[in-house]
């Protein structure tokens, strides 16, 4: 054995001794810790000792518990989504109603050609009187059908009923036309009230104020993109009530919210959107604040304040978006929007016109050097008047005229 071999052996022994000494040191520390803990435990009650033991175990299992919780949460989310789909599908199945598309034209079939001639009258005087009094447009072609056209479905219904009475009466002359239209217009108040009762009862709502029921009755004669408002409301209410029952929401609030969510669409004496008009109307009738909130939030104009508001929104979306519920040809939509913009663009001083929200909101940007601030207000009023006479629209159109002036300058170059 050489000297080098002996040195290597000595060095190895030294390293082993150091390792042993470190282990001894660790063992002494551990012994001291255990001795200290034993001393503490010896002075504890059985319950205190158990708590220490459970705390120790809990620390070791924290990671595993967290993992299990995350897995459980993911499983619950999947099951909740599946349950939600089943609830909505079941609600849609039970809420679907019979649907008949109604647009902006009513048709009356004539018994023969002689009646057509009497309706037109000598020189067209009868038909002119009828259009003036009923405020609808009449279209007569070669067939035995007369088409009554108006965006106001109440006017159209009055005209249809009056025309049917005149056809049976056979006394078609200007004075008789005026008399019959007035008579039917007076009777429509009772018709609207009866239709309101039917819709409210179909939705399971009773004991509403008479004036509010009359507004609901106007649903029967109002359409939105071809979908009858009364049918849409009944369908939405059935869906909303079904969902509310499943998830434990307040069924009474949801029922009223669904029934009244579009009440603003039949209110003609309020300014603003149909949501704003609806909220104002319901406050006037002192409806519960939760119902008013559901109406105010059903187009997400405001954040949802309750689960009931969410249910009303969901039911409205389902009823309005289902296949076949609403219909408006793209060409007709573009034509209507373009016509609104063209009417406004004809005014002197108008630079740019934009129609928004299916034509219910029109923004007009004027040339500031041609239109001053005082003229701007007058222009907005004149534009609104022109749209009333020439444009085809449902509800109201809000006209906003904007006049902007800018001043610019440039610094000297450095």
What's the CATH architecture name of the domain at 206-321? Orthogonal Bundle
**Strand portion:** 5-15%
Distance between the termini: 90 Å
> CATH top level of the domain at 206-321?
Mainly Alpha
Strand order of the largest sheet: 1-3-2
Shape: elongated
Residue share in helices? 55-70%
CATH superfamily of the domain at 206-321: Hypothetical protein af1432
What series of H and E elements makes up the topology?
HHEHHEEHHHEEHHHHHHEEHE
Q: DSSP helix count?
A: 14
The assigned structural class equals mainly alpha
Remind me, CATH topology of the domain at 206-321?
Hypothetical protein af1432
Computed Rg: 38 Å
Number of beta-strand segments: 8
| Most strands sheet | 3 strands, antiparallel
Residue runs with pLDDT of under 50 for 5 or more positions: none
Mean pLDDT: 79
């Amino acid at each position: 054995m050489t000297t080098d071999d002996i040195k290597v052996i000595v060095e190895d022994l030294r390293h082993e001794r150091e390792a042993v000494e470190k282990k001894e040191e660790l063992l002494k520390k551990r012994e001291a810790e255990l001795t200290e803990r034993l001393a503490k435990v010896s002075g504890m009650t059985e319950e205190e000792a158990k708590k220490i033991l459970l705390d120790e175990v809990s620390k070791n299992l924290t990671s595993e518990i967290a993992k299990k919780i995350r897995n459980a949460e993911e499983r619950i989310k999947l099951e909740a989504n599946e349950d939600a789909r089943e609830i909505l599908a079941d609600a849609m199945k039970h809420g679907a109603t019979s649907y008949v598309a109604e647009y902006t034209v009513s048709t009356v079939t004539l018994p023969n050609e002689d009646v057509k001639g009497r309706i037109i009258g000598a020189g067209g005087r009868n038909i002119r009187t009828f259009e003036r009094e009923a405020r609808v447009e009449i279209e007569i072609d070669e067939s035995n059908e007369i088409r009554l056209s108006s965006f106001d479905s109440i006017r159209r219904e009055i005209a249809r009923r009056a025309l049917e009475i005149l056809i049976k009466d056979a006394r078609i002359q200007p004075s008789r036309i005026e008399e019959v239209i007035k008579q039917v217009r007076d009777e429509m108040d009772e018709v609207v009230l009866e239709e309101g009762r039917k819709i409210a009862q179909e939705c399971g709502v009773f004991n509403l104020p008479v004036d509010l029921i009359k507004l609901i009755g106007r649903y029967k004669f109002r359409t939105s993109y071809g979908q009858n408002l009364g049918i849409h409301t009944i369908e939405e209410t059935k869906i909303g009530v079904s969902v509310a029952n499943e998830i434990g929401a307040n069924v009474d609030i949801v029922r009223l919210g669904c029934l009244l969510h579009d009440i603003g669409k039949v209110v003609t004496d309020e300014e603003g959107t149909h949501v704003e008009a609806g909220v104002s109307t319901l406050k006037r009738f002192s409806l519960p604040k939760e119902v008013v909130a559901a109406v105010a939030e059903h187009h997400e104009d405001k954040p949802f304040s309750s689960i009931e508001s969410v249910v009303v929104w969901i039911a409205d979306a389902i009823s309005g978006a289902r296949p076949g519920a609403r219909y408006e040809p793209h060409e007709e939509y573009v034509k209507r929007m373009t016509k609104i913009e063209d009417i406004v663009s004809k005014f002197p001083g108008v630079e740019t016109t934009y129609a928004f929200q299916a034509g219910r909101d029109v923004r007009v940007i004027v040339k500031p050097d041609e239109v001053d601030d005082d003229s701007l207000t007058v222009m907005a009023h004149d534009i609104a008047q022109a749209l009333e006479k020439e444009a085809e629209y449902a509800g109201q159109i809000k006209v906003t005229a904007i006049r902007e002036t800018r001043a610019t300058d440039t610094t000297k170059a450095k």
